[in-house]
Amino acid sequence: MLNKLSNDVVEERNGLWLLFAWMIAVAATLTALFIGEIVGQTPCNLCWFQRIFMFPLAIILGIAAFRSDSSIKFYALPLVGLGAAIAFFHTLIYFGLVEEAIVPCTRSGTSCAGEAMTILGSVPLPLASLIAFAAIGGLLSLCRPGVYR
């Protein structure tokens, strides 16, 4: 037997997924700003590109969570996908799976694979970014249209 959910239950769950996605985006944005502005660590080139895709998510997911607008996933998922792709590439560089010759961050500023690329002493920032983008994408994928009567 097919278990159909009412519109109210679907909207309640969508609102919850959007709220969690927004909270992750805000936490990632505040962490990036803290590292850059308070700690004083200059972001590498790949970090800048990840910020370009994460910062708007903190705004548009907040608006969508407030309005319970699950259609935001059609606009947010491309941002999540591009940010996750950059974070994945950055993670490969950090763990040495991509050769140094194609590392774009060695000309100036912070290295993409240096010791400064950790948070809390041991968590690599590129991996944390990848997990944040993946979690946001997963939560947005859980949003679904309601069942109309």
TrEMBL record:
Q: Which Gene3D superfamilies match?
A: DsbB-like
Can you name one GO molecular function term for this protein? Answer: protein-disulfide reductase activity
- Subcellular location(s) of the protein: Membrane
Topology with respect to the bilayer? Multi-pass membrane protein
Do you know which InterPro entries this protein is assigned to?
A: DiS_bond_form_DsbB/BdbC, Disulphide_bond_form_BdbC, DsbB-like_sf
BP GO terms, sorted = protein folding
Q: Which GO terms describe its cellular component?
A: membrane
Q: Which UniProt keywords apply?
A: Chaperone, Disulfide bond, Electron transport, Membrane, Oxidoreductase, Plasmid, Redox-active center, Transmembrane, Transmembrane helix, Transport
So where does this one cross the membrane? 16-36, 48-67, 74-97, 117-143
Family affiliation: Belongs to the DsbB family. BdbC subfamily.
Q: Identify this protein by name.
A: Disulfide bond formation protein B
Q: Which species is the source of this protein? A: Aquibium oceanicum
Q: What is the lineage of its organism?
A: Bacteria, Pseudomonadati, Pseudomonadota, Alphaproteobacteria, Hyphomicrobiales
